[in-house]
Amino acid sequence: MKTANYGIAIPMANEEEGFASFIESLKDTLDNVPGGKVYLVVDRASTDSTPDLCSQLAQDDSRFVYVWAPENRNVVDAYLRGFKEAFHAGHDYIVEMDGGGSHNPAALPAFIRALQEGNQCAFGSRYINGGSLNDSPLKRRVLSKFGSFLARVLLGCPMRDVTSGYEAFTRPIMGKILSYSLRSKAHFYQTELRYLLRKSDWIEVPIHYVSPSPRVSQNAIKNSLQCLFYYTFRRWSGKKDIIR
Predict the structure, then answer these.
(1) pLDDT tier at 155, thresholds 50, 70, 90
(2) 175-216 pLDDT tens trace
(3) Rounded distance between C-alpha atoms, residue 113 and residue 168, angstroms
(4) Terminal CA-to-CA distance of the chain, rounded, Å?
(5) What is the pLDDT of residue 207?
(6) Checking phi first, is residue 181 left (phi over 0); if not, alpha (psi -120 to 50) or beta?
(7) What's the pLDDT band for 151 if we cut at 50, 70, 90?
(8) Which pLDDT score, from 0 to 100, does residue 216 have?
(9) How far does CA 224 lie from the centroid of its chain?
(10) What number of CA atoms fall less than 13 Å from residue 30's CA on the CB side?
(11) Beta pairing class for 202-206 and 121-125
């Protein structure tokens, strides 16, 4: 694989328990895929030692950047702040990754390779050949599967997996994402991006997903349904919401 200039945006909230193992795995991947920088976005959602751990890591390893973002109101704000940091730093490719252990850093080379081969977007997928969903509570499995089904039926979204958060974008596409006013504030954000980018040059990358947390708030579900029906109504009204 050619050396790539890439940035990884990772929201970090209350991650102290699995911090050391995740960071060691990420460092191993960065060693094997040179040219990367990691933007650890921390906000007031963290009530444990995560801010201190991220700050110290950034001081010890120049590949990591500690981003304190107290203005964030939700996880979507955290992702977008990380995207902005990576974009303004001039990276050619920008990757979104979860910091809670759900996403295996070892899959990173596949995302970078997909963009180097000419795709504008690479979306992690648990539901294509080579992908899997492990250790996930039944409620999360049902929400994920049903969400993907609804997005395909109501929105015509062609991806097999529309709710995974492991994904990567080229710099031009990221610039367009950042200039677009997203509606979602929680879990539907992943689906919203895929729907808006459905006409771009995209590819799905198989991932092995581990979901350690069974909790999905009622507010998140409510926001997801509101956004889903908003875009469904616009689609059936002939509106073409597209980023490409």
Answers:
(1) very high
(2) 999 999 999 998 889 999 999 999 999 999 999 988 755 566
(3) 10
(4) 26
(5) 95
(6) beta
(7) confident
(8) 66
(9) 16
(10) 19
(11) parallel
Burial class (CB in 10 A: 0-12, 13-18, 19+), 134: exposed
Average of per-residue pLDDT values in the chain: 92
Counting every residue written for the chain, the total comes to 244
What are the backbone dihedrals phi and psi of residue 128, each rounded to the nearest 5 degrees, phi first?
-110, 170
Token pair of 116 as six digits = 């180097």
Q: What is the 3-state secondary structure (H, E, C) of 11-41?
A: ECCCCCCCHHHHHHHHHHHHHHCCCEEEEEE
Q: Of 154, 86, 165, 152, whose CA–CA distance to 122 is shortest?
A: 165
Six token digits for residue 67: 């981003």
CA 236 to chain centre: 28
With cut-offs at 50, 70 and 90, classify the pLDDT of residue 170: very high
Of the ranges 13-17, 63-67, 138-142, which one carries the lowest mean pLDDT score? Answer: 138-142
Q: How far apart are CA 235 and CA 237, in angstroms?
A: 5
CB–CB of 43/13 below 8 Å?
A: yes
- Give the single-character DSSP code of 200: S
Distances (CA, A) of 205 to 34, 63, 152, 220, 225: 20, 25, 18, 26, 26
